[in-house]
Specification:
Layout lengths: L1 H20 L6 E4 L14 H29 L2 E6 L12 H20 L5 E8 L1 E2 L13 E2 L1 H13 L4 E4 L2 H12 L2
Parallel strand pairs: 1-2, 2-3, 3-6, 4-5
Length: 183
């Protein structure tokens, strides 16, 4: 656990230092990390749970902590977290993933509120199942979207200054509504 945290912190810090030393400032940051174990929480090891939290949430916080101050200094920036619809609705055997992606969404909302009046924008992108290695073997079972669709929707969402951007087939919008109204 500590080895992983040190590695991420050193890599993120090293990247920040290298960019700063070259005289550059990042004004667009895209956090696009994710891991899902697909197991009930009670069957996951503590190491797996911590890994999920570190990859899906803590790494986003670290990178934002590093790069946001410079964006504030230059008076412009946009931070995009690729979260998930799983942060808005339950997903079988994915408590760790749903909880961390919900945290990512709420973090972006909090940062947006906290930075009102600055020229820094925050967007949480919430795709449904994206056809990547994470859902490998489930493509026939799940309605999935292509990574290219997520990219183009994200660009449009950023241009429109969307706070939360859903990227999914239309029937998933109905699912989200049902989750909110049904017990």
């Amino acid at each position: 656990k500590q080895w992983y945290q040190r590695r991420v912190a050193i890599t993120a810090g090293g990247l920040f230092n290298e960019i700063s030393a070259a005289g550059h400032t990042i004004t667009v940051l895209v956090n696009n990390a994710g891991v899902v174990f697909g197991a009930p929480l009670t069957q996951m090891s503590l190491t797996q749970i911590q890994h999920s939290v570190n990859v899906n949430l803590t790494s986003n916080m670290w990178l934002i902590k590093l790069f946001l101050p410079k964006m504030l200094d230059v008076g412009k920036g946009h931070i995009i977290n690729i979260a998930s619809m799983a942060g808005m609705a339950p997903m079988k055997n994915s408590t760790d993933y749903c909880a961390t992606k919900a945290g990512s969404i709420h973090m972006m909302t909090q940062l947006r509120m906290q930075n009102v009046g600055t020229n820094i924008k925050f967007t949480a992108v919430c795709p449904s199942y994206v056809k990547t290695k994470m859902i490998s073997g489930l493509e026939d079972v799940l309605d999935h979207i292509l990574p290219e669709h997520v990219v183009s929707a994200t660009i449009k969402g950023v241009q429109g200054d969307r706070e939360v951007l859903l990227v999914c087939p239309p029937k998933f919008h109905v699912l989200l509504l049902l989750v909110k109204v049904l017990p």
